[in-house]
Design brief:
Number of helices of chain B: 3
Distance between the termini of chain B: 44 Å
Number of strands of chain A: 8
Structural class of chain A: alpha/beta
Structural class of chain B: alpha+beta
Largest sheet of chain A: 8 strands, mixed
Shape of chain B: elongated
Strand order of the largest sheet of chain A: 3-4-2-5-1-6-7-8
Strand content of chain A: 15-25%
Distance between the termini of chain A: 38 Å
Radius of gyration of chain A: 18 Å
Oligomer: heterodimer
Order of helices and strands of chain A: EHEHHHEEHEHEHHEHHEHHH
Shape of chain A: globular
Helix content of chain B: 40-55%
Number of helices of chain A: 13
Number of strands of chain B: 3
Order of helices and strands of chain B: HHHEEE
Strand content of chain B: 15-25%
Helix content of chain A: 40-55%
């Protein structure tokens, strides 16, 4: 049975695309046929993070408007089996996305894939609403920071009232918290909201804590989903989150600052 | 912990807990009004309609203020009544408080 997972946040710049790319790659690595869909029409970026920007021929709008079929628009990842990318259009605007068009594409993808990861645009407007409308599960990406937490709460309200599951009074969308850019040393100093605070405020189950890590930028520079960077703490944290999503009981890591030796203190060694 | 860390910790100690407290208050209120629209403009309009039945009041001289607190929120309604027969101008305040 296939599942539609939306990666959403309300606020921009918190790590939705990074999380979508890492999570979808992680699911594919575990053997599930996975497709990651960019819903940010007009501001396409998932292709860059996935490193397939030079292979984009058709996009989601082309499929909706019948200029190409789904098979032609899907880009197969070259590094990981079972992984495909459906890019957003760069030239069109969000109005080109229609509910019927999105539904048709998702239904078609449900027949061929186990997981469909929808990378939502920021905001709570049309694009974001369409990205979450058909979702079975939602990963709410949040930074430990007041505006991000507030916007996450807002998007949880939208999920609870305006998703298809809510409208049809079916079982609600299953929600997961992905706390990103977590800096445990700042939390220790009382400068940053801790994971317990954020989880208590949003009151949804915690899927993963992604530590603030230099490897995220390094990975995006190279177009490699950070989960493929095996030495990176962020990558390992995403792999843990995927395992938890698949039902494994894995303790949360990266809650305490890494003990750094004199050498890394002096040279600020990459995390 | 270095000497620098020691001073830094002292200075910014409370900011994370301040963030948590502010979020808890604002979100508690936003969740209540999430489904309905903002009721304050309607409240002001309806109150003015009731008062206008008894006293001639200037619609522009009404103030509705809301202060959202942790345990108690206060709703303050200030309506300026027109001058009395003696020509003396007098402002009268009506106040209401609501829990929640």
């Amino acid at each position: 049975m296939s599942e539609v997972i939306v990666v959403t946040s309300g606020k921009g710049g918190v790590g939705k695309t990074t999380s979508s790319a890492a999570f979808a790659t992680g699911l594919a690595m575990r053997g599930y046929k996975t497709v990651v869909v960019d819903f940010d029409v007009g501001l396409r970026n998932l292709d860059l993070i996935m490193g397939c920007e030079r292979r984009v021929v058709f996009d989601i709008i082309n499929v909706i408007q019948g200029d190409a079929n789904l098979k032609q628009a899907l880009i197969k990842d070259k590094r990981v089996d079972n992984l495909w990318i459906l890019p957003a259009s760069q030239t069109r605007d969000k109005d080109a996305l229609t509910k019927e068009g999105v539904e048709k594409i998702l239904n078609e993808l449900r027949e061929t894939h186990d997981y469909i990861v929808c990378d939502s645009p920021a905001g709570i407007e049309r694009g974001a609403q369409l990205a979450l409308y058909f979702a079975d599960q939602a990963i709410v990406v949040t930074n430990p920071e007041v505006s991000s937490v507030r916007d996450s709460d807002r998007i949880l309200g939208v999920l609870a009232s305006r998703s298809q599951r809510a409208e049809q009074e079916r079982e609600p969308v299953k929600e997961h918290l992905m706390l990103t850019r977590y800096d445990s040393s700042r939390v220790d100093r009382g400068e940053m909201l801790n994971v317990t605070d954020v989880q208590e405020i949003l009151a949804i189950p915690l899927l993963g804590i992604i530590p603030e890590s230099q490897s995220v930028l390094q990975a995006s520079n190279q177009g490699v989903p950070v989960i493929l960077e095996e030495g990176s703490a962020a990558g390992r944290a995403y792999a843990d989150a995927v395992s938890r999503f698949l039902g494994e009981d894995i303790p949360h890591r990266f809650l305490t600052p890494e003990k750094k030796g004199l050498f890394s203190r002096l040279f600020r060694g990459a995390a | 912990m270095s000497l620098m860390d020691f001073f830094r910790a002292k200075r910014s100690k409370a900011s994370a807990s301040t963030a948590r407290d502010r979020l808890q208050i604002v979100l508690a209120h936003e969740r209540i009004s999430r489904d309905g629209d903002d009721f304050l403009p309607r409240l002001q309009k309806e109150l003015m309609e009731v008062i206008a039945r008894y006293v001639a009041v200037d619609q522009n001289k009404a103030m509705v203020k809301l202060d959202r607190g942790d345990d108690v929120s206060t709703l303050e309604i200030e309506i300026e009544l027109p001058s009395t027969a003696t020509g003396e101008r007098r402002g009268e305040r009506m106040q209401a408080a609501s829990n929640g």
